[in-house]
Amino acid sequence: MALMLKVPANCIVVQQPKRAFLGGAGTSRLGATSTNRKQRVSSSSSSSSSAISMIPKMSISAIPNQRDDKSTSKNKIDIPIMVNGCSGKMGKAIIQAADSAGLGVVPVSFGSAEESGQTVQVGATEIVVHGPSERESTLASLLEKYPNLIVVDFTVPSAVNDNAELYGKVGVPFVMGTTGGDRDQLYKTVEDSKVYAVISPQMGKQVVAFLAAMEIMAEQFPGAFSGYSLQVMESHQSSKVDTSGTAKAVISCFQKLGVCFDMEQIQLIRDTQQQIEMVGVPEEHLSGHAFHMYHLTSPDQTVSFEFQHNVCGRSIYAEGTVDAVIFLAKKVHSGTDKRIYNMMDVLREGNMR
């Protein structure tokens, strides 16, 4: 039995290969190469543009307009955002999605000391990258110029805690999709500073909905898979050095369902040849994908379950991030007591684009 996560073609590509795990006599292994494993990606830039053009015009009337430009288009949303990590592929994808949605991307970003002073071109937007030594004064100046500013953070795991402390000190709300760092300290920093934030290691809305379904199952049917063995394989682009936060979250649900599993048993695939031959990742998406497979086997090996979700590209995360920004802007303006949110909160709010 396999549970396949299906969403619009321009967001997630659902693979239809042979079984990723082949069970037999108490063992399982990854299958060999097959031409049928190759997934054809049907989405294109033109189809993505068409999908965006079908999105209804929208505005957030509750947020006061800080601009005096009378020529601003009707679908312009007055939420200026600063995308840190703009030189990375994820940062660029978010900038493109934000621009298409009508958000205003400020021409400033934070990066490493080596990137300081560089200009990054994303579409028609030129963004100047500032190094660590300029961060606090730069961010304070931006917040003064753009009172509704929201920071989007897709940097590196080692910068998570320092960045959160900076955002809290200056008092700017932020959306963080960066994984890693000391997560307990991260939440404590936000709570102490009382800034508003959406913090989620997974920004893909449909993947988050799948995770929510897993959590509901774990809560309502604890121990349902007691005694079952679990195999987990996750494949990401070679530049991703850490283990997928999504895989950890799914495994946590399986553990609540009674499965014994050590996180160190996760099979990480980062070699491009293995990704093509063993996993079935399309070559054009080797530099940006997330393939997850979970295989459960009963103690007597007569029953098995497979859960799989495959993502090609970064558009699903970029679109989810834009929804999180719009959601957070509403929370900031309403002055609600709750300050820390995740993508499940964004989904529950509804009315997403």
From TrEMBL:
Pathway: Amino-acid biosynthesis; L-lysine biosynthesis via DAP pathway; (S)-tetrahydrodipicolinate from L-aspartate: step 4/4
Pfam families: DapB_C, DapB_N
Class of the enzyme per the UniProt entry, highest EC level: oxidoreductase
Reaction equations catalysed: (S)-2,3,4,5-tetrahydrodipicolinate + NADP(+) + H2O = (2S,4S)-4-hydroxy-2,3,4,5-tetrahydrodipicolinate + NADPH + H(+); (S)-2,3,4,5-tetrahydrodipicolinate + NAD(+) + H2O = (2S,4S)-4-hydroxy-2,3,4,5-tetrahydrodipicolinate + NADH + H(+)
EC number(s) given by UniProt: 1.17.1.8
Domain Dihydrodipicolinate reductase N-terminal: 79-203
Biased composition (Low complexity): 42-52
Keyword terms of this UniProt record: Amino-acid biosynthesis, Diaminopimelate biosynthesis, Lysine biosynthesis, NAD, NADP, Oxidoreductase
Domain Dihydrodipicolinate reductase C-terminal: 207-347
Keyword check for Methyltransferase: no
InterPro entries from the UniProt entry: DapB_C, DapB_N, DHDPR_bac, Dihydrodipicolinate_Rdtase_pln, NAD(P)-bd_dom_sf
Chain segments carrying region Disordered: 24-52
Family: Belongs to the DapB family.
Name of the protein in question: 4-hydroxy-tetrahydrodipicolinate reductase
Gene expressing this chain: LOC103341350
